[in-house]
Design brief:
By secondary structure, the chain is mainly alpha-helical. The protein contains five helices and six strands. Helix content is 53%, strand content 8%.
């Protein structure tokens, strides 16, 4: 028999979200900006998308203003605009899913079961749910980053390296 080293503990599963992602030389990304319910394992995806958005904003700024501009508010606002809404939508979605699965209400349980079966039986819908979850709600546009609609149709071209995109734009202009 195993010896119990410490008593069992429990922790409330909750999410939090910063009102702003930057202030006075400090930029929040990942769990520092948002803590999500571990229900669907989205915390890491959201954090990686934060890093990608911030990296892109910084990479683009270096090409025309230099390293001194990395803390410029207008650039950090682009990062915040790109990530706050998708992160907030994911937080709300995960909270809703958590509540739907935690209920004892038989009608809600029946509706949940029906809805999950429909998602599973409709390949297009299922694929969009998977794409949304794996992209953490973000899509790159050709000229900017922005919050994506629910179930975005992301593609590899939209997630290209900024330096490659700049080269492609220069080639197209010539």
């Amino acid at each position: 028999m195993k010896e119990v080293v410490a008593p069992a503990a429990s922790f409330m599963l909750a999410g939090t979200h910063a009102r702003t992602y930057f202030r006075r030389g400090v930029v929040l990304v990942g769990d520092a900006a948002h803590v999500v319910h571990p229900l669907a394992g989205q915390g890491a995806n959201m954090g990686l998308m934060d890093v990608a958005a911030l990296t892109r904003v910084w990479a683009e700024s270096l090409s025309y203003v230099g390293a001194a501009a990395l803390s410029r508010a207008d650039l950090l606002e682009r990062y915040e605009r790109a990530r706050w809404a998708p992160n907030n939508a994911m937080l709300l979605l995960l909270q809703s899913i958590s509540e739907i699965f935690a209920t004892d209400n038989s009608w809600i349980s029946l509706a949940r079961t029906f809805g999950m079966r429909q998602i599973n039986n409709l390949p297009f819908v299922k694929q969009q749910v998977i794409r949304y979850a794996s992209s953490a709600g973000a899509v790159w546009a050709d000229d900017d980053i922005f919050a994506a609609p629910l179930f975005p149709l992301a593609n590899a071209r939209n997630c290209a390296d900024p330096s490659q995109q700049q080269q492609q734009q220069q080639q197209q202009q010539q």
